[in-house]
Amino acid sequence: MSHVRLQPVRFPPTRLEEKVTIALARIVLKSVHQAEQVLKPLGLTPTQFNALRIINGAGPDGVCGTEIGKRLITPVPDVTRLLDRLEYGGLIVRERDSVNRRFVTAHITVEGQKRLSEAVPLVSELHKGRFKGLNTSQLQTLLELAESVQDGN
Questions:
Q1: I need a labelling partner for 137 at 20 to 30 A (CA). Which of 2, 3, 73, 144 fits?
Q2: What is the predicted pLDDT for the residue at 13?
Q3: CA pair distance 22, 29, nearest whole angstrom
Q4: Across the chain, what does the average pLDDT equal?
Q5: Residue 95 contacts by C-beta under 8 Å, 6 or more apart in sequence?
Q6: Which residues contact 146 (CB under 8 A, 6 or more apart)?
Q7: pTM of the entire structure?
Q8: Which phi and psi angles does 2 have, rounded to 5°?
Q9: What is the C-alpha radius of gyration for the chain, rounded to an integer number of angstroms?
Q10: Which of 6-10, 24-28, 91-95, 123-127 has the lowest mean pLDDT?
Q11: What is the model's pLDDT at position 141?
């Protein structure tokens, strides 16, 4: 069977918006991969880490699964399963409302706070290292630009 040599398909030049999208995607994917590597020895995924931070930030009142789902950086299709894994690991407890049995609130445990205390400095160092070449003003500008794009402006 003979091999046919195809000429490359000609596309319009890559737009600046596409180049920016690719650069941002690479940053995010590399950051997630690094976070996975740092959190793995602690038995956490980046999504579990994010959920623990949300639950911890809710304080003694706790937070419901629906709210956790809304606040996660990376949406997950099944927040209940995510919380199941955290509860199974002893990192959170869940409490059903005495009036509305369908309403469940998640609370962080002492072990969850301990694990989070170990993870936060590691993840913080990753973020610090990622942006070490930028000064405060540049970081603020980058944040404002990212928020503007995120909000759809």
A1: 73
A2: 79
A3: 10
A4: 92
A5: 62, 104, 105, 107
A6: none
A7: 0.85
A8: -85, 150
A9: 21
A10: 6-10
A11: 96
3-state secondary structure 81-127: HHHHHHHHCCCEEEEECCCCCCCEEEEECHHHHHHHHHHHHHHHHHH
Q: Does domain 29-150 have CATH number 1.10.10.10?
A: yes
- Summarize pLDDT for 93-131 with one digit per residue, the tens: 999 877 887 788 999 999 999 999 999 999 999 999 999
Helices (H), 40-78: 46-57, 65-71
Cα–Cα dist 66/33, whole Å: 26
Tell me the CA distances in angstroms from 31 to 34, 79, 124, 127, one per residue in order.
5, 23, 11, 8
Greater confidence, 90 or 150? Answer: 90
Residue 98 CA to residue 118 CA, distance in Å, equals: 34
22 by Cβ neighbours in 10 Å (0-12 / 13-18 / 19+) ranks as exposed
Q: What secondary structure letter does DSSP report for 59?
A: G
Look-up of token digits 């299709």: 77
The predicted structure's pLDDT at residue 75: 87
* Residues sharing a CB contact under 8 Å with residue 130, sequence separation 6 or more, in sequence order: 27, 31
Q: Tokens 């999208």, residue?
A: 21
